[in-house]
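Note to self: keep these together.
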Amino acid sequence: MPQSRVKNILLSSIVLLLFAAGCSKVDYAKIDDPAYLRVFNNLNYTIGLENKDEAVPFLTMLIDPEMDQDGMPVKAGIKGDFLDQREPYAPPYPSHIGTGVSFKNAEYPGKENVLVGPVLNGFDLSSWAQIPSGKHRIVFMFRPVNSVPFFELDPKLKHKVLIDTTMVLDSKEVYTLHVLQKNFVTKKNGIYLRKENFHKLPLSDSLVYVNFYNMSAKGFLEASKDQKTSYKKSGALYGGIKEEMNIFYSLYTSEKTMNDPVFGYQNRLLGKLTRNSEVLEVSPYYNFPLFADGKSNGIFTNIWQRIDLMAPGMDPANNPYESFQLETSGNWAPVNCMTDGKSQLTGNDNAAQLPNMIVNIHSGIYNPRSFSTVNTIEIVNGNVYLTTVQRKYAPPIY
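Structure:
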């Protein structure tokens, strides 16, 4: 047989095997009365000489586990494995979509093959897992950073419990669960379970919505700077912010500079941000028009958002700090929401970087088309995170 034909047969066989593997059937157990749950690991410290005895914050979540006589989990009703520290951006689609091959999970359900939430009141809940409603025991376990599934680990590696508690999930409700450091000095950890309400609100598709949380650990702001070196990628936010801050926003059209502000949208006061990792109420949503720029055509807009967090009594128009200063004693921390969250303004800018709150994507005959979203910005110690939820949109027409 000619060598070229052998190569073609081998190539075809590999393609068929890959296709068969990619199309393997997953059987899901129907959940009659579900709640919807999304989980983030916010333990954002790094292990160094000063805290070398702490466990690496790489986790397994077990819901309704069964323990043996020695207290070691042997099975669980629901498992969320390989739960790594969360990414700065949680996009409006399941995080397992894409080409990533890492075994690590930036959130739950993430890459887990589980039943996910439906489209509820127009919002896509496919980033939330279905969980039977009711009361549950939930345990978070430390695990080694490797690709071995939790229940296949050596028994001596399945004993270190981070959190063991209970939670009650109401039917058809949407929840976000955070694993948090509650106290920076004592290293006490805990959970923060929030019942979301965005899907119940009369939100307009011509407005972009955002709310804010400061879930930082008690004592983080006051801690010494040498304990915060791992947070410096977040600009002036790395040292933390004060317990009470005012939230200002501005809109711009020039991607790399603040030279082209949107008329009427400069240094607008949104509201107040108070540090709280205990009370479970949803923060109020603020909004701005999707097409705030009068020069846009009503289909696509290139505006981006600047958030200034400032101590009471301060305002961006009379800011005593220079744009490049990282040390602001927690009085000022800006955040730029632009493109992929990695673009920097021209010159030295002390802002943290997050993606744009407006989603631009091919939809219908338009490529791109701009869509409004519902967003949450969360500050945890010296890091800032953006979660975006989007309504369903028309698929592209080619």
